[in-house]
Every structure is written in C-alpha cells, then in structure tokens.
Amino acid sequence: MNSPVQDQISNTPSEEEDFFKVMQLSSGLILPMILKAAIELELFELIAKAGPGAKLSAVEIASQLSTKNPNAAVTLDRMMKFLASFSFLNCSLVTDAEGHPRRLYSFAPTCKNFLPDEDGVSFAPVLMLPVDKVHFESWYHLKDAVLEGGIPFIKANGDDAFAHPVKDTRFYEVFNKALHNHACIVTKRLLKVYRGFEGVKQLVDVGGGHGGTLGCIVSKYPHIHAINFDVPPVIEGAPPRPGVEFVGGDMFERVPKGEVLLMKWVLHDWSDEHCLKILKNCYEALPESGKLIVIELVLPETPNSDPLSKIGYQFDMNMMSVNLGGKERTEKEFEDLAKQSGFASIKLICRAGCDWVIEFYKD
C-alpha cells in the first residue's frame, strides 16, 4: 500500500488541478456572498472616496462605518484578503511606525465595475438580484423540479418571477434596480459596436421595462422617436425619460407599430410557444422593409468550457429555475423561431460583451 506521501508524489498536474477545482467549488458560494456584503457596506465606494491610487487599511475603512463592533476591522481585513485573492482588490504589505506589518487595499480593475458611473449605473445591483434570499431560495427546489415538475421559483415563493415582485415591495426594488442597471450596462457596450440605430426614425422597445435601454439609445441618437412598451403596472412605475414615450399594453395581444422594433432579454423569459406569439405580433407591427432587433445570449450548439459558453449556460440554468419554459437559445433555435413566426431570415450582427445583436428581417 502506498503511503500518503507516495500518493501525493504520484499525482499528475492534471489531477492536482482537478482536485483544486473541486475544492474551490465546494465553497464557491462564498465569493458572491462576500461581494454582496461588500456592496451593502459600500466598501468599494469608501476606497474610491479616498482618491485615485488610494491605499487604505481595514482599520481606516472600519472607522468610516456606522458600527460599535470592536472587531469590525479584523473581520473587514479577512474579507478584503479574500477579495484580493480573487483580484477584486489589490493588497500591499507595509510596516508601520512600530514595526508591525499592515495590509493596505486599493482598487483592482475588476472592482471598478461595482462603482457607479457618471449616470449612477454599476454592476452592483445586478449582482444583488441572484443573491437575494427570494431569488436564491429557488435553488433549493431544483431537485424537486426535476422529479416532480414545476418551477423552482414558484415552489419557493408561491408565485412566478413576474408576479412576486409586485407583491413584495422590497424585492420589487431589488428586481427593478437590477434590470435597469443591466439594461444600461449592456446598451452602453452595444452602442460602441452596433450602428443599426443610425438611420432609424421610430424605435419601439417591446418589453422595455422602465425605459433604461431606450434612454441610453436616445441619448446618442436624439432624432429617434422612441416608444417604450410594457405592461401597464411597469409603465406606471417608470420615471420620465427625455425623448421616450411610454405605452402600456400586452405583447401577447398586440405590439405598437414601428419602423424598427427592439427586444432585449425578453425571449429568454419564455417558452417557444410564448415566443412565437410575441414574434408574430412583432411581425404584424412592422412595415414590409422593417426589422426586429433582438439582444440575447446565444448558446453554442455543443457545450464547451470557454468563458462565454459558461456564462450562457449559467443564465440558462437561471431561466430554468425562475421561468416556465424560459431558456437561452442557439442560433439555430432563434432561426427556427423567426421562420415559424413569418420572418424571412435572421443575422447575427455583432457581439457586445456577452450579448449578441440579432436582426430579424421581414423580407
């Protein structure tokens, strides 16, 4: 029988890598939860307020928190060491006047995604949605959904992911902040690479929520007459946006007519049957030369391990846990939906971050 030392020596680099991967997965939930706490404590903002290139100790940061906990700095230091190990912060070691080592923390590039930009938009509210207790509870019911059917979110909360926020005002705010910030982040990236709005005179955003997507588009293309279309309760809660008209209705019944229609992260919420109803209404609302611009993740035909593929399948699992029939799709699946709803063809135009711009052509 081999000794433990012999077993360790006989491990190949691949086996070692696999072992470390499994060990990290066993505590994989810790990173998003530490980030959640850091966001709630406004940790990144406190470092930012210290100025460009600032390096702060845990004691200096803890002194700015509203706390009487004498161990706050110790806890913060452990959290920030963890975040530094995942490259969310930089950590440097210095020696204080008494000769004691002290860790100082500063920004790493990834951390900047959690700071508000000039429009108050950041990735922080986007992260807060999946780690919220209402959303997170769904994952405990995934096995039951496999064996018994049903939707994990409904099993956890008693109603679906669209109805529940209306009844839970706290979660409603979390939900809407996440959607608004995500819409702005994706659209800003999109406008850097996609030129398809340049000649558009009228644009209808179908399922546009509070109008964040159109707000970004109109700020760059103020000549566009923009119509934000969503269900009446959503429209009623939307803030006014310059250049954006808000119209309430049901996309399963009809869609406002427009030269060009837009849908961002709408189709992935619904089954193929529901998507066909939406797409047929979009087809009817367009002129013969019109087009529908769809912004969605696009899955590869066969799974692979590159980052884009992993993100796509992560969101596919999320859709499976919260929506009846909701899923991410491959290019072929989008093409099939387009043809079944009357569109002549589709074309993947460009990718902005994780999302693809797909144009659906009526003729």
From TrEMBL:
It holds the Pfam family Dimerisation. Residues 139-344 form the O-methyltransferase C-terminal domain. Residues 23-116 form the O-methyltransferase dimerisation domain. Keywords: Methyltransferase, S-adenosyl-L-methionine, Transferase. Signal peptide: none annotated. The keyword Zinc does not apply. One of its GO terms (biological process) is flavonoid biosynthetic process. It comes from Rauvolfia serpentina (Serpentine wood). Belongs to the class I-like SAM-binding methyltransferase superfamily. Cation-independent O-methyltransferase family. COMT subfamily. One of its GO terms (molecular function) is O-methyltransferase activity. InterPro entries: COMT-like, COMT_C, COMT_dimerisation, SAM-dependent_MTases_sf, WH-like_DNA-bd_sf, WH_DNA-bd_sf. This is Caffeic acid 3-O-methyltransferase. The gene is OMT4. The active site is at H268. Transmembrane segments: none annotated.
